[in-house]
Amino acid sequence: MSGAWVYITTNRPNGTLYVGVTTNLARRCWEHREGIVDGFTKTYGLTRLVYAEPHETILSAIQREKNMKHWKRAWKVLLILEGNPSWADLYDRLA
Questions:
Q1: CATH code of the domain covering residue 71
Q2: pLDDT the model gives residue 94
Q3: What is the pTM of this model?
Q4: From edge to edge, which strands make up the β-sheet containing 4-10?
């Protein structure tokens, strides 16, 4: 799939949140799950994909990610709950 994605990962329902951006959502989520890259997501075990938002261009995805990173936590939680009220791991639904 062309374009880009803004996504949110967590370690459990209502756990620590991470907002990221990528052009390959399946690969990036796999990297988080396998702990390939050292950093925040590996340190906190943020392997559960709970939100994903497609964008036509990487530039629009980057701008959205930057905006979301400035949001209050409660707003991010509401965004997740709108589309994924059970905080299910969406990784298995990726093509």
A1: 3.40.1440.10
A2: 87
A3: 0.94
A4: 17-22, 4-10, 48-55
